[in-house]
Specification:
285 residues; mainly alpha
Amino acid sequence: MWREVVELSRPKNVVLAAITVPLGAHLALGGDWSFQSLGLVALQTTSAICFMAAGNTFNDIADLDIDKVAKPHRPIPSERISIGSAKKVAYAFTLLSAMCMASAIPFTDQPYPLVAIWSLAAMLMYTYDAGPQTKKLGLIGNIAISLMVGAVILYGASAVSLANTPIVMFAAGVAFFANLAREIIKDCEDMESDEGRNTLPMRIGLMNARATAYVFILASMITLGLAHLYGPFEYHQIVFHAPAIFILFSLNGPLFRGEDYKAQQNVRIGMLLGLLAFAVQVSIL
């Protein structure tokens, strides 16, 4: 049972939350940590991990029919865990996330951004698989997921009551645009098995969708540049972002050749390297 629960949570995505919440706090604090901020960020990192695990589990429940064909090895279509048990897991993760978020409120100087970001993310998560089911609306669903990814960085900053720090906003923008590109590329990769969805590749064709994804990759790199032009860093310090820029800029080759899996994996790597470069620069300022 525990193996299936871990698999439903998608550990790779959960690790991303475990990194980006402390990253958001680190950027906001300028690397100046205290014992209180460590405790608050630990609580909200746990909250984000549980939140993401819940969202991934709800997604697997909603995707049962698709996964029976495309991913029959997943826990639900392979019947290693029942729909009922998976729902209990998802609700338990949601409750744990809310409890961790709420338990920090008395110790947070500005709790309203924390509550607002969690609530907005919860609404986006719910409407992705239920209600209007934005997942089926293609680009709108891609935007919803990417807003949640960017919000995780803001959530980390809000844990230490510094959500409006400019560098945090730039980092969240980089994450939003890069993940939006990745979501579109994943839709290109999964186009044949995405029954019942109106994805961007289905609407405008694979090559046009890949070109659109590359535009958003370029937007993420422009945001990196703006962080140095208008942010707290010197422009020459953009050299710290050289590995991320190189990986992202070179994605036009794999995309043109239709190597969607390679491209979307490299977007993830480039995004992480770009965000980590922000953390390094803050630490040496």
